[in-house]
Amino acid sequence: MNILTFDIETIPDVASGRRLYNLDGLSDKEVAEVMLSRRRQETDGASDFIRLHLHKVVAISVLLSTNEEIKVWSLGDIDSDEAEIVKRFFEGIERYTPRIVSWNGRGFDLPVLHYRALLHGVQAARYWETGDDDQSFRWNNYLSRYHNRHTDLMDIVAGYEFRAVAPLDQIAVMLGFPGKLGMSGDRVWDTYLAGDIESIRNYCETDVLNTYLVYLRFDLMRGNLTKADYDSECDRVRAMLEVDSKPYLLEFLQAWQATSP
Fold first, then answer.
1. Which residues contact 251 (CB under 8 A, 6 or more apart)?
2. Which among 101, 125, 126, 198 counts the fewest CB atoms within 10 Å?
3. 55-65 and 70-74: which strand pairing?
4. What is the distance between the alpha carbons of residues 154 and 203, in angstroms, rounded to a whole number?
5. Contact residues for 236 (Cβ-Cβ < 8 A; gap 6+)
6. What are the residues facing 4 on neighbouring strands?
7. What is the mean pLDDT of the segment spanning 201-206?
8. Can you tell me the distance from the alpha carbon of 80 to that of 74, in angstroms, rounded to the nearest whole number?
9. pLDDT band for position 183 (50/70/90)?
């Protein structure tokens, strides 16, 4: 089975903010501040997390596991625009028909990707299939909360109970995985403004690695992997990180080796 673990990083969609709130003449940073302020007003100060349709995707990272190989990378390159990386994500689903795995993908990543695909006119027939053209999708598709073509680990492990959800970072560290290494989602906007897209992409890839390792433990828990299978797959991830030898991946590997129980 092809397994595609994914994560996205986003910033405020300042272009839409300008149109919606008539903010011509303001800088990107100023427009974002207005958007955050309006969100605080909408929530009576409880949150400035903007609505999902006003998030712009700046990075999508994936880990693809097949029988032949395992690899992690960010879609497109540093100069790729949003339309290109969103298109590549859905093209991957079209090509591999993988099980996609996320942490809070149902509540955040996929709805954001829906809105951005809608904005850019990205076609994704395989992703939206529900059984009309392929009967195998009738009882197992990407859209249903209780189907496993999309496995949202946060949702499933919490028993579909919102009060039981937990942050990926804490679960990863609890299980002996590295968790976040010096970067977090709330720093993405400032990092983007500083022009450091590479750091955002690298951070996103480490989140994907944490998610995949949690997924392996989940598969062990539910009996889909034996202990020997689980250990073998973890070894395969370690070998991939060593061969890739990018500094941030080697840092992840070293942190994993240091924190493993």
1. 181
2. 125
3. antiparallel
4. 19
5. 70
6. 64, 100
7. 97
8. 11
9. confident
> Checking DSSP bridges between strand 3-12 and strand 99-102, what pairing results, if any?
parallel
pLDDT band at 261 (very low <50, low <70, confident <90, very high): low
How many CB atoms are closer than 10 A to CB 248? 19
| Sheet containing 3-12, strands listed edge to edge, beginning at the edge strand earlier in sequence | 70-74, 55-65, 3-12, 99-102, 150-152
Residue 126 · residue 117 · CB < 8 Å: no
Q: What are phi and psi of 11, to 5 degrees?
A: -135, 170
Percent of the chain with pLDDT over 90: 92
- One-letter amino acid at 27 equals S
DSSP 8-state class, residue 98? P
The token pair that represents 122 in the structure block? 């990205």
Question: Which amino acid, 201?
Answer: R
Q: What are the structural domains of the chain?
A: 3-259 (3.30.420.10)
Instruction: State the virtual CA torsion across 185, 186, 190, 193 in degrees, nearest 10.
Output: 50
d(CA 141, CA 127): 8
pTM over 0.70: yes
Return the amino acid letter for 216.
Answer: L
